[in-house]
Amino acid sequence: MTPSASLAPAAAGQPAAGADPALSAVGVTMAFGGMRAVDEMSLSLGRGEMVALIGPNGAGKTTMFNLVAGSLRPTSGRILIGSADVTGEGPTRRIRRGVGRTFQIPRPFAEMSVLENVLVGAQSQTGEGIWANFLAPRRVAAEERAAIEKARALLEFVTLSHLELEPARVLSGGQRKLLELARVLMADPDVLLLDEPAAGVNPALLDLLIDRIVALNGAGKTILLIEHNMDMVARLCSRAVVMAAGRLLAEGTPDAVAADPAVIAAYLGDAP
């Protein structure tokens, strides 16, 4: 079962031909005091494309990722979703515009059930307003039933249906990654930002996670991921963007950037 996508299906990892970028960063700089963690960095994701953001430790990847996700506001430069300038908007506004993210270390609500954790990701529910529960109870109940049905479908997609009533604390690290993916999908994002999805995942669950990411991309989701697992990058992505010292160092297919002398030097600590 694959969750419905708002974008037309595209070949996995490939941008839709002739489409405007789904997400872009233009000349973005992030300074902390006198240090530039990101320095005049630009990035563009075509609709339906899957791109890896890679680089050695300290390259500025996480800062760049947080800028794109809205957790940080850049010192200068612009972030755009489609043609809309969202530079000053935070993560809540961005998810309503169709950009959702996961975290390197998932932190589910440990004592809530797995199903309840997924339901947290539902957006713009009528029942969130106090008076609506009294003035429109049927509408609230209908939305709640639809949300539960959708959450269960997503749990089936990530193969956690059998654990829906269990507290989230019983899940393994890999299962928590799958749970977080289901939760962010509750918001129907067009763009997924995945922060090191392979980190802490055992090989058996990693294959499942890769399969689900491929399915989402094949259904039209645009995906940007930070990842240190280069085998995973090569399996998933048509393009890799390499950062070093806060700047763009190289860009191309995973095989091409892996063979680039400048990239090799950066990973060995010899980059200018």
Structural summary, described in words:
35% of the residues lie in helices and 23% in strands. It is α/β, with parallel strands linked by helices and 272 residues long. Strands 6-7-8-3-9-10 form a six-stranded mixed β-sheet, with helices on both faces. Helix 5 packs across helix 6 (173-185). The chain starts with 20 loop residues before the first strand and ends in a 5-residue tail after the last helix. Residues 4-18 have low confidence and may be disordered.
Structural class, please?
alpha/beta
Q: How far do the termini sit from each other?
A: 48 Å
Order of helices and strands: EEEHEEHEHHHHEHEHEEHH
CATH architecture heading of the largest domain: 3-Layer(aba) Sandwich
Q: List segments where confidence is low: pLDDT < 50 over at least 5 consecutive residues.
A: 4-18
The total count of strands amounts to 10
The average pLDDT value, as a whole number, equals: 87
User: How large is the share of residues in beta strands?
Assistant: 15-25%
Q: Assign the CATH superfamily of the largest domain.
A: P-loop containing nucleotide triphosphate hydrolases
The percent range for helix content is 25-40%
CATH class of the largest domain: Alpha Beta
Number of domains: 2
- Indicate the overall shape: globular
Main sheet strand line-up: 6-7-8-3-9-10
Largest sheet: 6 strands, mixed
What gyration radius follows from the Cα positions, in whole Å? 19 Å
Do you know the CATH topology of the largest domain?
Rossmann fold
- Quickly count the helices: 10
